[in-house]
Fold this sequence. Notes:
Belongs to the glycosyltransferase 2 family. By secondary structure, the chain is α/β, with parallel strands linked by helices.
Amino acid sequence: MVSFFFDLTIFITGIFTISFLVIFxxxxxxxxxxxxxxxxxxxxxxxxxxxxxxxxxxLTSIWISLLMGLLTLSGAxxxxxxKSRQKITVGSLPYYPLITLVVPAHNEELVIxxxxxxxxxxxxxxxxxxxxxxxxxxxxxxxxxxxxxxLEESVHDQKIRVVERSGNGGKAGVLNDALKIATxxxxxxxxxxxxPEKNALYFLVKKILEKPNRYKxxxxxxxxxxxxxxxxxxxINQEIVVTQRIQHVGIWQLFRIGRIPGTNFxxxxxxxxxxxxxxxxxxxxDTDISFKIMQEGMLIALAYSSEAFQQEPERIKDYYFQRLxxxxxxxxxxxxxxxxxxxxxxxxxxxxxxxxxxxFFWFNAAIVLSDAFLISNLVALLIQLWRPETAIPFDFxxxxxxxxxxxxxxxxxxxxxxxxxxxxxMATQYGQATTEQIWLSLISYFTYSQLFIVISIHAIISVLLxxxxxxxxxxxxxxxxxxx
Length: 484
């Protein structure tokens, strides 16, 4: 199944390459017409050519982003092809370093019991674990549920501490507090809704011990535990699988770049102290510290066999504000690290800064403009039913019919690539590559994925207003939890 999607990826790459060459030829044609139009000082002609140039630049930007996506997809497939024939085994490690596991929880009484139970049953020596459970500014029964679960399920040689915290700084503040008292060689983090698989920590430690002097952190994969609840969670599941199985794997395979997720990772304690810990109040403390690690020239290793199951939002409102927080956090990190494109930073930092800058600014702007062009043209077509003389604002002359057809064809390729990426990711997981997933990915392109545009616009406006009016940008709305 994976090899089939690999062949399809190569085919689409070829199509995009040919299309891209044609686009450049057409762009040169339009450039010639721009010069001619300005010489002729024909305002109507100039306006028409400008609309063509804007359309070409916008769609070319989108195709560049898609080519980058194809590159990542190819890297992921080249990683998974040999792995699909390998059996995962659990043997003895060279040694078992002491691990301090930190669980930050803010009003998580509904889900914290399952997380603690899973951590207490990890396949790792109990005397090599230190567990710090933080009830961070809780107004519910989170702390009491922590104590009750520990009392009922822990064994005598497990070192566990429940901390009721009232400080600020959010999750990053909790991690910095834990850093001060942690005794483990490595600190591991699990969110309050993240249920680690029995061998999750084992695989993280195994990976980091391969090159302990180079690997300063290791991260695993996260899966949606309520994926089948409704249409929204099914779409989120596809997004998470693509992020974990394609994007993270692809950039690790191609560039040895790792991105710490919010949960299911370990990091060397002394090294975190050396780089100054986490940034208090950061909305995406995981992305922020990933840049810090790479800036030092160290690696964040992918432990692809380590898995944790997290609960995703089940309502649009909860989903929207969660992703708005993530988007704002990523914009803040991008703006803070944009300077590294022009200094003597590590090349991985430059590449990540370039990638994030393109993704969150250039490519997002191109998508917004392309949607604006499409809506403008559709409105003009409707008006033409009553006023035939109405001009189409973003159109091409009849002599450019070839490029018009090419644009339509590439819109179809964009959809195909979206569906291909999702179903390639699904093919790497047992039982996930189904006909239902194909139809779901197609429907989600026109529904779920379009919500990203609204969230991105909202996020960048919010970040700008925070900067202009000196607002506290670290405040966020908590994601609602459910019993499952």
